[in-house]
Design goal:
single chain; mainly beta; 14-stranded antiparallel sheet; 6 helices; 51% strand; elongated; disordered N terminus
Length: 916
């Protein structure tokens, strides 16, 4: 028989050390035909066994904890008492009772409790409660541990002893990996602890020469706790790589355990080598903290900590900080080597209180933009001009809502840094509710929003001369708290007239500010100001038009056309230029406009239930752990039944997808899709919108918006900032650009996904001329037989610096273009091929800016990441190459990582990912 190992699949593997890369590339080369049986999986020539002969690293099975093995009748493993039971082909006993010596030979099977000892020959000494086993020894302690050897002595009362020339395995580690060992001698010093003498430990259980292993003179294994190695040497294909004074491997059933994390490293031309270490400390069952530090050999030292807590299943709080002391190492601080150190702090949490209150926090604070650009590993953090922090408390009671908010937003743009703050802010809201004294007459709904806040705005200018030369006026600096009181009640009246949807909405709003701004000098005044206006909106939704398209007599797709028309009137804002802009509350201007558009929707049918008719009809359900059923397991009768069921299902589907004869072809559908009877539209077939295309535009009766729009400069306010993601408010215009949005979605499955989004704005009347902007996103995920898996994503946007029509040229900016429009084009593609858990895999992601705005030099490549790796059954190696060319940072970085299953990962940048 073989030494039994619990069922286990080949786990993922990820990475270590630059010097290992060359050695690991050759790991997959040796042919299986040239390999001998792994000593860990050594055969034990004992035909009497109930242990199955299985591959312990089968890829066809999921990672599971060892399960109790099914034993034949009369051979159950655990015994109800601690009485020793011996079974063998031949037994002889000598001596008196209590001091008897029993010799058992031939297929000996000895059991006591959960312990089992098998051998060719076993001698039992009752007086010393000692067992001596010889020849093909197999010792099992339940499902937790197995030791094999040529000879063993074991005290079955104290559960101690030793084994010679041994192999074996210990129970699973946190990631499901089984640790195998070979040794000259194994001493069992207690019921749950063994000591390995001159041994080798690995997670590679199917190779003659393990891909990796630790050789040690002494190792201690405590079941369900840890493996402690004294002075281990890491070997790759029996080639020594490095030596450690001490190593510890956790094999606890629970995932959380205090200790030092695997060190990581990377290399950068700008910062030199980067070495990272961390210590993880549990704080009870619901909290932990990680302390981490970095050494940049050409820059300095970094230190940080991350705290995680959980109050209940829905509430959590994460917080941490990271700081870098720059210019401690490498070149000292001078004009060519500025000090770009700094610190960052974050809080991220949600808490649900028993009394119904909800609190949330999302805080990100960075000491300076240079620190974020130079020391963050995320390109999004490096290029983002915004940094937001807010704390939110909410309480809902029926239709009413109480909210408290404290928030800060910092926007860094060339020559200026703008900080806006709302601290504190309290709001009361009532969601739309039916007006009781009108409910028998008209379905009118009343709602309101009210708030009281302390707000502020501060603009910090680095170069005032450049700031003024660009046409700006004095930077705005308000008092620490500007009082803002706001009240906005409204009434909504929805009607349905013969399938036409009509919605009337009216609001009035009054807002008080304790400070105002001088329109000429842009200086903040202590004079208060009150803004009041009214808003009316009428929304018209005609009946939708729908048509079913068929192919070969069966349903193909459904096309639905949904037009709409909205009229909006806002009036009463005569002091727009006196308001200090804190947020979107102030960015509202008078308007008198129509918005009109049409949406085309295309529907398919897809299955909406995981249990099909066939399974429900036959009632045959396989056990969850039975695994996939092969064709050979089905009987001829079952195959015939399946064919009949498939034919019947197809017939029913064709009947369902055919047109109902009672509904005329090309019928106008009022408000919704044609509804078939429940018996004709089973739950397993549901409509799925796979494509939608919306075209819309606005017409403005007042192109200056009551004087709020200043020709010749960029203007952003409601209602022109909610129509498109790109600006078009540089000049007065009657017609907005034509906005087009298209979205494609295929039904998402476990092995397939595809989506595409397209947005564009087009000038139709010559103000800007043609295409103004374009944004496209795309995503693809497929599982393939050859490549195993492919994932591809990309985002792209393009904007033009608009040249205005001759009649509007007087409003052009200094560059001769429409204010607010810039020539820009960015593309961010990424692709990944392969399976990270098996075989060769790799991918690449890039970020291009073809206008070179955030980057330097002539290259359009702002950042890139290229990944190449290979995963074996018990380890993996990954190499990554990063480039950064943005703002203050022009850097290339190389990261190698090597993962040992059950041990950890060396070389990856996995610690403290919040900032990085």
């Amino acid at each position: 028989m073989r030494a039994y190992v619990p069922e286990h699949r080949r786990g993922p593997a990820l990475t270590l050390l630059l010097v290992l890369v060359g050695a690991l590339v050759s790991l997959a080369a040796p042919a299986r035909a040239q390999q001998q049986t792994n000593p860990v999986d050594r055969k034990v020539e004992n035909p009497v066994t109930d242990t199955p002969n299985v591959n312990p690293l089968s890829q066809d099975r999921p990672v599971v904890r060892p399960r109790p093995r099914t034993r034949p009748d009369g051979a159950q493993g655990a015994q109800p008492t601690d009485e020793l039971e011996v079974r063998a082909d031949k037994q002889t006993s000598t001596g008196e009772e209590g001091s008897r010596v029993t010799v058992a030979e031939g297929n000996v099977d000895t059991r006591i409790g959960i312990y089992r000892l098998q051998a060719d020959k076993v001698t039992v000494y009752e007086a010393k409660t000692r067992v001596v086993a010889e020849g093909n020894v197999v010792f099992d302690q339940g499902e937790f541990q197995r030791i094999t050897g040529s000879r063993a002595e074991w005290d079955y009362t104290r559960k101690t002893g030793f084994f010679e020339n041994t192999t074996g395995f210990t129970n699973q580690t946190q990631d499901g990996t089984i640790m195998y060992f070979t040794a000259d001698r194994v001493e069992k010093v207690s019921g749950d602890t063994i000591v390995i003498i001159n041994g080798e430990v690995t997670a590679c259980g199917d190779d003659e020469v393990p891909k990796w292993s630790f050789k040690t003179a002494r190792a201690t294994i405590k079941m369900a706790d840890k493996v402690k190695l004294s002075k281990p040497r890491l070997l790759v294909k029996n080639v020594p790589v490095f030596w450690l004074p001490y190593a510890s491997i956790s094999i606890k059933q629970r995932d959380r355990a205090s200790g030092f994390l695997t060190p990581t490293f990377s290399g950068s031309g700008e910062k030199g080598m980067r070495f990272s270490n961390a210590y993880y400390q549990t704080l009870g069952r619901s909290a932990d903290i990680t302390f981490r530090n970095d050494i940049y050999t050409k820059r300095g030292l970094g230190f940080g900590a991350d705290l995680r807590t959980r109050a209940n299943s829905r509430s959590f709080l994460n917080l941490g900080f990271y700081t870098v002391k720059d210019r401690v190492l490498g070149p000292k601080r001078d004009a060519a080597h500025p000090d770009q150190g700094g610190s960052s702090f974050y809080v991220d949490g949600v808490h649900y209180f028993p009394n119904g209150f909800l609190a949330a926090a999302d805080i990100n604070i960075t000491s300076n933009l240079a620190f974020r650009q130079v020391f963050s590993d995320s390109i999004q953090l490096a290029i983002s001009p915004e940094e937001r922090s807010q704390v939110f408390v909410n309480k809902n009671s029926g239709a009413y809502s109480f909210n408290f908010i404290a928030r800060t937003q910092v926007t860094s743009i060339p020559t200026i840094r703008v900080r806006t703050r709302s601290l504190p802010g309290i709001s009361f809201e009532k969601r739309p509710g039916l007006i009781s004294w009108l409910k028998d007459k008209v379905p009118a709904y009343f709602s309101y929003e009210s708030s009281i806040e302390g707000v502020s705005r501060k603009e910090t200018v680095e170069d005032l001369g450049t700031f003024l030369a660009e046409g700006n006026q004095n930077p705005i600096i308000t008092p620490s708290i500007v009082q803002r009181l706001d009240f906005r009640p409204g009434v909504t009246l929805p009607l349905d007239v013969q399938g036409w949807g009509l919605t009337f909405t009216g609001h009035v709003r009054a807002t008080y500010y304790s400070n105002s701004i001088d329109p000429l000098t842009r200086l903040v005044l202590s004079k208060d100001v009150t803004r009041g206006y009214g808003e009316f909106e009428f929304d018209l939704r005609p009946p939708a038009l729908a048509r079913n398209f068929q192919r070969d007599g069966s349903f193909w797709f459904r096309h639905v056309v949904e037009p709409y028309l909205t009229y909006r009137k806002i009036g009463g804002i005569s002091n727009f230029d006196k308001l200090i802009r804190f947020d979107e509350t102030e960015a509202v201007a008078d308007t008198n406009e129509f918005e009109y558009g049409v949406t085309n929707r295309f529907f398919l049918r897809r299955s909406a239930e995981s249990v099909g008719r066939r399974a429900g009809r036959t009632g045959r359900v396989r056990p969850e752990d039975a695994g996939p059923r092969t064709a050979g397991e089905r009987t001829e009768r079952e195959r015939r039944e399946e064919r009949e069921a498939e034919a019947k299902e197809k017939e029913e589907q064709e009947k369902e997808e055919g047109r109902d004869p009672r509904v005329p072809k090309n019928t106008s559908v009022s408000g919704q899709l044609t509804a078939l009877k429940a018996s004709q539209s089973p739950l397993t077939r549901q409509p799925y919108e796979f494509l939608s295309v919306t075209v819309r535009q606005k017409y403005f009766f007042d192109p200056t918006f009551g004087g709020a729009l200043v020709p010749g400069r960029r203007n952003q306010f409601y209602p022109i900032n909610n129509f498109s993601g790109f600006t078009y408010g540089g000049v007065p215009r009657r017609f907005s650009p034509l906005n087009v949005e298209a979205r494609l979605r295929t039904p998402t499955r476990a092995d397939s996904e595809l989506f595409t989004d397209v947005r564009t704005d087009i000038d139709t009347l010559g103000e800007g001329g043609g295409l103004r902007d374009l944004a496209v996103s795309f995503g693809l995920r497929r599982r393939l037989a050859v490549l195993r898996a492919i994932e591809a994503f990309q985002t792209f946007y393009y904007t033009r610096a608009i040249t205005l029509a001759p009649s509007l040229r007087k409003f052009s900016n200094k560059a001769g273009n429409e204010p607010g429009t810039l020539q820009g084009s960015q593309w961010s593609p990424s692709v990944f091929v392969g399976d990270r858990n098996r075989g060769t895999f790799g991918g690449a992601s890039f970020f291009f800016d073809f206008q070179n705005r955030p980057g330097k030099g002539s290259s359009s490549l702002i950042s890139s990441t290229v990944t190449v790796g290979h995963a074996w059954d018990c380890c993996a190696v990954v190499a990554q190459y990063f480039t950064f060319n943005v703002g203050l940072r022009n850097e290339n970085r190389v990261v190698f990582s090597f993962r040992l299953n059950g041990i950890g990962t060396f070389g990856t940048e996995q610690i403290g990912q919040r900032f990085r």
